Amino acid sequence: MRGRNYAEALVRQAEYAPPPPIDAGTLETVSLVVSEMAQMMFAPAIAEFEALAE
Is 3 part of a structural domain of the chain? Predict the structure, then answer.
């Protein structure tokens, strides 16, 4: 939606050097507790995005 430069900036922001000491970058590698916590944290933003998309 915002173009390649924006996407590259987000990827750059998310990079770690050296790599993080834990592997929790996907739903397959993160614990259920953390997954549920993230869902609760982002629920208001997701609801807003969904409302805007209508």
Answer: no
